[in-house]
Structures are given as structure tokens and as C-alpha cells.
Amino acid sequence: MTAHAIEPSVQKLPTGIASFDIIAKGGLPRHRTTLLSGTAGSGKTVFAMQFLAAGIRDADERGVFVTFEESAGDIRTNMRSFGWDLERWERDGKFAFVDASPDPHVETVESGTFDLGALLARVEHAVKRIGASRVSVDSLGAVFSQFSDQSVVRRELFRIASALKAMGVTALMTAERTDDYGPVARFGVEEFIADNVMVLRNVLEDENRRRTIEILKFRGTDHQKGEFPFTIVPDDGLVVIPLSAMQLKQKSSDIRVSSGSPELDKMCGGGFFRDSVILVSGATGTGKTLTVTQFLNGGAAVGERCLLLAFEESRDQLFRNAIGWGVDFERLERDGLLRVVCDYPEVLGLEDWLLAIQRTVAEFKPNRVALDSLSALERVGTIRAFREFVIGFTSFIKHQEITGLFTSTTASLMGGTSITEGHISTLTDSIVLLRYVEMFGEMKRGITVLKMRGSLHDKGIREFTIDKKGMHLGRPFRNVTGILAGTPVHVSPADVERIWSHFEAERGERRADSVVTDGERRRGSDRRRSS
């Protein structure tokens, strides 16, 4: 036992933004000031208001919003889209505005000594009047941008932070920055005043905007490192997508489900595992959408609910094609066994698509989900964003024990070196390859099960045909090599026999060498024992 008392660790205040609290490991440090810096459109004001709204709604913790930029009336109007009724909370004494926004008819002139004492007195009065425990200040740049003396800015920033700490509140202050990967804030001193610093980014990558949040520092307490994607959605506000929370703790079932094709089930050793994710990869026209149709029909045949997410074909086209293969999607919809979601992938960003799909799955509760195709979604964002989408989606459906089937279009007509351009094949449990095979001036189709975790499967490459009843698997291709590489070459039976004879001869020599080596090892052991 030491003579000195152990100082209590920094306590965290859950913000009420559950996804953010995961990367913050519990929330914002309690009774401290956090600086939230970001470029225009990154979501600073939304985060600052959501911090207060979530406290009122979920924890009965009252809040004060100090605005230096937008008027209180404009903020009330803007926040209604998120379902935050600020006016009602004001009437109930749970929320208060301190409106320090500039009067457009009054010109501010820098003269004499600048002092925020009167404003801080208003803030303290509002905090005491409603018993607030949370305060948001938006934004520092709006009040200090008109002053050229850096010493004044630093002094008054320190004064604000000290005053908020003395009030015993947990505070959030927003600040502007001019570059997503430049200085933390405009004046270069803000990050040294606050106890904690977070950065919001709204980066333009490949003609697409992508928002991320990063915690730069939490004094005296831990947090997750790096950038995390987030989006802003109506009726919900800011939603972080913490990929680090998607732990590899999913259950693994040994129950098999049908692919919808008895012949493909045999190739897979009895069908797919119930909680597995299957990737069907192939060139355009090889039968990927047909594989999806049979997969959904196979589930509906045993009473399973199926969800189809289509990003390349319209609803009418999908239904027409299914009828051509003997599957009535319209009847399955009427029976409540199928739901079809069709849209262009460019309608939303990848983070928004992930959340929209999760909401649809939570509402419909399907047993099977088919996504046709990943290649369409891949063009919406960067390779990193696409991979994060696939990680989030596969983790989500595996935790729900849903069987998932994704399709992906290869860049080359005959195949290639990569199964997917985004290299996400390692995230799937099973891979089915569909390939074109050119033989003597005729184009044939081939299918093989490249990978199936936890199960034996047919290693052959089998020819298949498509007719009005769907897909029909035939015999394996014989005397053909180079199919997966996209360069099929016919080999004569004599050449095949000669190659196999060569392999058998080598195998026999290795066995003979092994026998000699074992004999020498035994003789050497006998000599050591006798000596």
C-alpha cells in the first residue's frame, strides 16, 4: 500500500452516438473540453448538436448550444430533419441557446482590448438556469477570424476552455480548417488549448466525397487510432462505421443449405453452409444472375425468406429473366418469400448503402441475401472504401447467420489473374468460378468450386449449359488446360498419357529415394547403438 492516494482515472461520458462511443472507448472524457475540427461540410455542427440531443433524449442530460455563426432560428429549422425538436426541449427547460451569431447589419471593427467575459457570463447563466451538463460551442473560427493578433486568440481560447471546465460541464467546441490533411485548425493554437482533439474530414476521392472521423488525442485516456468512415442520415444524424468493432466472433454452422441446383450442391459436398458467404465470379454472360436466381428459388422452395439487392438490372428485367428460367419472382413476392431492391449504385455512397442494407435486413429478416453485383458497387468509391463495405456487410450477415451470395464480374472475358478487382475474395467462405472455354471455334461455359472453407468439394472444371429450366452441369473438361488462366488449350490424349507417365515416374523415384534414405537412417541408428 503506497502512501499516496491513487488518482482516479479519467471517466468517459457516453455521447449517445453509439457508433462513435465504440471508437472513443466509452465516449468523451467527462468534465473536459473537446475540440472538433473539420473542413466545410464535414458535419461539425451536426455532431455538436447530436451530442446535446442524444444526452437529452437518452440520458436526461440537459444541454446548451452556443452559436457564433448561424442564428438560433436557422439551427432550429435545419435540425428538424433529424427529428430533434429543439423548440419543445427549450419549452421543457432541457435545452437552451446562447445566440452570439453576428448581426448582418452591424460591422465589427477590431479596436481596443477584446474580452469574452460578457458572453461567458451568458453561457454560465444558461448552464445554471437549466442545470446543463453538456455544452457545444459552434464555431470558434466565426468569432476569432476577425482578429489578427494571435496572442488575443490564444488568450481568449484558453479563457473559454477554462471557464467551461469551471462550470463542471462536458464541452465540445468546433473549429474550421482549410485543408483535410493540413493544420488541425485555422489559427494553429486551438489544439493546444483543448484537452481532447478530434478531426472530421470530407475528402474528395475519385470524384466521390467520403467523410471520416479521427480522434487525435484524449488526454489521460485511451481511444481507437486511425480514420473511421461515417455518414449523416435523416432521422438519425451522424453514424460512424467502426470496422474495428466487427470482431471475428461469428458462429459457424455445419447445417447445409441448397444452392438451388442439385448438381452444384454435389460439387460443393452437399450444398453451402448456412452462415457462409459465397462469391460467384465470372465474365459477363457466364450465368452469374442465373446462379443468383436459382439460389433464391432454392431458399423459397423450403420456406426461407430471400432478399435480392440488384445494382445492374431493373426489376422488370430481373422478373422477365427469372420467368425465362422457370422461376416466378412475382409469386414469391406475393407469398412474402422474396423482396427485391433495385437501384443504381451511384444513388448513395458506400457507407449509406451499408446502413440502408442493414435497415432492410433488420426489417425483412431474410434467411438468404443475394447481391448482384459487387462490381457495380466497386465503381462508387475507392478500393479502400469498397473493401470496408464488404467487410461491414459480410460481418453483419454472418452475425445474423444469413447465407449470402455475391456476384462479381471479371475484367477479362476469359478470366484473369484476379477473381475480383478489389481483391476481396479472401473475405468470402466459398468461391464459384464461371468461365468461358473456347474449343475448336465454339464457346462453352465451365464451372468450378475454387474454395469452400470447412468442406471437401469437387476440384473438377465441369461444362454446363443454360436452357429454359436453368443451369445443367455436364462432364468435367478433359484434355484441356489453362481454363482458369483464360488461355484454354486442347491437349491430345497421347500428350496427357505422356505427362501422367512422367509424373508417375517422378513419384516412383521419390518413393525409392525415400526407402534408401530410411534404410540409411536405420543402419546409422543400429551402428550408434552397437558402439
Walk me through what this model shows.
This protein is of the alpha/beta class and 531 residues long. The chain has 2 domains: 12-245, Rossmann fold (3-Layer(aba) Sandwich), CATH 3.40.50.300; 256-489, P-loop containing nucleotide triphosphate hydrolases (Rossmann fold, 3-Layer(aba) Sandwich). Helices cover 35% and strands 25% of the residues. It is elongated and about 95 Å long. The relative contact order is 0.10.
CATH superfamily of the largest domain, called what? P-loop containing nucleotide triphosphate hydrolases
Mean pLDDT: 84
Biggest beta sheet attributes: 9 strands, mixed
How helix-rich are the residues, as a percent range? 25-40%
Count the E strands: 24
- Structural class, judged by helices and strands? alpha/beta
User: Helix tally?
Assistant: 16
Shape verdict: elongated
Can you list the strand order of the major beta sheet?
5-4-6-7-3-8-9-10-11
Quick tags:
single chain, alpha/beta, Rossmann fold, about 525 residues, nine-stranded mixed beta sheet, 2 domains, about 35% helix
What's the short story on this structure?
The chain is 35% helix and 25% strand. It is α/β, with parallel strands linked by helices and 531 residues long.
